[in-house]
Amino acid sequence: MKSQRVRTYQLTDRLHAGRIVRVSADGIVAAVSAWLAELDTRSPLVDDLARTVRTGNWTAAHAIAEYLSIEVTVAA
After folding, report:
1. Average pLDDT of the residues in 48-75
2. What are the backbone dihedrals phi and psi of residue 64, each rounded to the nearest 5 degrees, phi first?
3. Is 4 domain-assigned?
4. Is 35 inside any structural domain?
């Protein structure tokens, strides 16, 4: 039985220098929502970001990330 490797993504908060986390696709919503909560805000775009990353739609993922003031990349 092959074990499937979980892909890890790096999220960088563009509003707070040096704030970077590495999460699985399932952790994107929690991480970005926590950052937004610190600013006393929420956004339905967080779920859209996680979905586009999961499906590999990087054009949409980067556009959504821009609105959320974050960067998202595949972690090495």
Report:
1. 97
2. -65, -45
3. no
4. yes
Is residue 61's pLDDT more than 90?
yes
Domain that holds residue 50: 9-74
In the block, which residue shows the tokens 């990349």?
Answer: 73
What whole-number distance in Å separates Cα of residue 46 and Cα of residue 50? Answer: 6
SS3 66: helix
pLDDT tens across 4-58, in order? Answer: 788 999 999 999 888 999 999 999 999 999 999 999 999 999 999 999 999 999 9
Tell me the two tokens of residue 50: 């996680």
**Count of structural domains within the chain:** 1
Look at phi and psi of residue 18 and say left if phi exceeds 0, alpha if psi is from -120 to 50, else beta.
left
